[in-house]
Amino acid sequence: MLEEFRTYLTHKARIKDKYIPYYLKWVSDCYLFFNQPPEHPLSNDQKQEFLKHISKTQEQWQVNQADYALRLYSFFLNRGLKGSSEDLTDLEGKWKELQEETRKALRLRHRSLSTEKNYLI
Questions:
Q1: Percent of the chain scored above 90 by pLDDT?
Q2: Under a CB-based contact definition with an 8 Å cutoff, are residues 19 and 25 in contact?
Q3: How far apart are CA 20 and CA 14, in angstroms?
Q4: Which of 6, 22, 61, 85 has a CA-to-CA distance to 12 between 20 and 30 Å?
Q5: Collapsing DSSP states into helix, strand and coil, what is residue 67?
Q6: How far apart are CA 92 and CA 99, in angstroms?
Q7: What is the DSSP letter of 18?
């Protein structure tokens, strides 16, 4: 599960490669702290308890990084982004549809080409 999360961090969350091991460590440490498998989502109370626990020995920026890593992991679990190519293909199709609708709306309002490019980035 954590390898799929690593892929998610690299490609979707766009976390820099040098920070990814730390994000994985925070998530792994949190699940070890509660002795739960990484497939099960944690409650917000559990996350806060873990953050409070590590704040005793870690600096504030590390606690913030751990908090962000746990939020990303929760999002990853809740969205079911586990590398399913069918889901990604469907999302890409919907995204292209949305881009085309936006393009049509901008052109209907006679917006400039640079505005259109900025909206569609």
A1: 57
A2: no
A3: 10
A4: 61
A5: helix
A6: 10
A7: T
DSSP state of 12: T
Q: Per the structure block, which two tokens stand in for 44? A: 């917000």
Distance in angstroms (rounded) separating the CA atoms of residues 20 and 7: 10
d(CA 70, CA 62): 12
CB-based contact 25:9 (threshold 8 Å): no
pTM: 0.64
Residue 102 to residue 88: CA distance in whole angstroms: 21
Looking at this protein, which amino acid is placed at residue 26?
W
pLDDT digits (tens, 9 = 90+) for 75-116: 998 886 445 555 556 777 888 888 999 999 999 999 999 998
DSSP codes of every residue in 36-62:
--TTSPPPHHHHHHHHHHHTTTS-HHH
